[in-house]
Amino acid sequence: MLRVRPIQFTSDVAGWKHLLLALGLVCVEDHSDWVEFDAGSGRVALHRTSPDSPDSPDSPDDGTTLFGVEVGDLAEFARRTVADGTRAELFDADHGQAVRVTAQDGFTFLADKAASRTTSPEADPGLAVVGTWLTLDVSGAAQALRNIGARPRRASPDFADFSTKNGGILLVRESAEAAAGGLAFEYDGDLAALEARLAAAGLAAARAGSVLTIQAPRGRTVTVAAAP
Length: 228
Description:
The chain has about 230 residues and is of the alpha+beta class. It has helices at about 15-25, 75-85, 140-145, 190-200, and strands at about 1-5, 5-10, 25-30, 35-40, 45-50, 65, 70, 85-95, 95-100, 110-115, 125-135, 150-155, 160-165, 170-175, 180, 185, 205-210, 210-215, 220-225.
């Protein structure tokens, strides 16, 4: 099993909940400081953090997006990933056991155990969560994603993307340093209708060709690209 599940850190959980619901995701777990949403394909988690401001400079996580996935059997996932050539270690995280995957460019991400293999049928079926990995080593990152079980879709020297068995898209883009990109989605539907739905919810969105850019809490943005 492999499903995309980025984590959005925010001091404005209510604002992000409003945005995700307007996009067509469904809340499936709400513990106030930790909230999970299902899209038609993939999942998003919100993690409450302190505001990042001049009065609170010790909260660099506010507004950042953490690249991550969910899997079925942690030990088996780690074993297969290592056997295919990418470093993966099972360890005890603050929230329980997880697998830490480390790529050749130094980028690390976690694979957590999925509570279920399915996502809510009430979510907009056209919306897929996109986890973005920025790196100078596109080919190495792409190989690491193949090694965790992602399925190649498209590739070029500066770009590669993958589908996953249980939902969501994994995207690699060329960048000067290894990092996670912001929260993004892919939409297999009418972008104009989605834009109208967001406007009805009071959310500002700008459309440029096949991409919607939506204003998110605390000056962040979310992108929704038309499915290829």
